[in-house]
């Protein structure tokens, strides 16, 4: 699966990318929301892990734009875990929310759920 990891913090982006690569997936990276929108259109990732607070275009706005134009599933990956942020992200089109710092089991669970969702939609089940 092709996965886009979006985070303005290089360390967080590289850490998540490394874990996803270890799970056998292809990873593309973006350092802000604007770059994420461009890369999602060009690369057509299956899943996008999106930070919320970023320069140029925040994660909620980027999610809104991405989900209008592509079928990729957006999973918010942020340290901001209050209910209002989660609700806003889901309303913008995100399918799930992973709180940073994340643990590997939760990452695998979220990936599995997004993958199943893609499979179900593809086959019309």
| Order of the strands making up the biggest sheet | 2-1-3-4-5
| Helix-strand string | EHEHEHEHEH
Please give the number of β-strands: 5
Give the percentage of residues in beta strands.
Answer: 15-25%
What percentage of residues falls in helices of 4 or more residues?
A: 40-55%
- Any idea of the CATH topology? Rossmann fold
Radius of gyration: 13 Å
Classification by helices and strands? alpha/beta
What can be said about the biggest beta sheet? 5 strands, parallel
Q: Which term fits the overall shape?
A: globular
The helix count comes to 5
Note the topology:
Blueprint: E1 2-6, H1 10-22, E2 26-30, H2 33-43, E3 47-50, H3 59-69, E4 73-78, H4 83-92, E5 96-99, H5 104-123
Parallel strand pairs: 1-2, 1-3, 3-4, 4-5
Give a written overview of the molecule.
- The protein starts with a strand and ends with a helix.
- It is built from 5 helices and 5 strands, in the order βαβαβαβαβα.
- The chain is an alpha/beta fold.
- The chain has one domain: 3-Layer(aba) Sandwich (Rossmann fold).
- The model has no long low-confidence stretch (mean pLDDT 91).
- Helix 2 runs parallel beside helix 3 (59-69).
- It has a 5-stranded parallel sheet with strand order 2-1-3-4-5, sandwiched between helices.
């Amino acid at each position: 699966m092709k996965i886009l990891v979006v985070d303005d913090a290089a360390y967080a982006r590289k850490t998540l990318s490394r874990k996803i690569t270890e799970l056998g997936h292809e990873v593309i990276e973006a350092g802000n929301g604007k770059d994420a929108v461009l890369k999602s259109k060009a690369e057509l990732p299956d899943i996008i892990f999106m930070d919320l607070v970023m320069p140029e275009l925040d994660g909620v706005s980027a999610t809104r734009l991405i989900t209008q134009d592509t079928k990729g599933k957006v999973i918010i990956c942020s340290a901001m875990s209050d209910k209002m942020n989660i609700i806003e992200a889901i309303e913008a089109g995100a399918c799930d929310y992973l709180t940073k710092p994340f643990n590997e089991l939760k990452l695998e669970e979220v990936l599995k759920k997004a993958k199943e969702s893609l499979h179900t939609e593809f086959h019309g089940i």
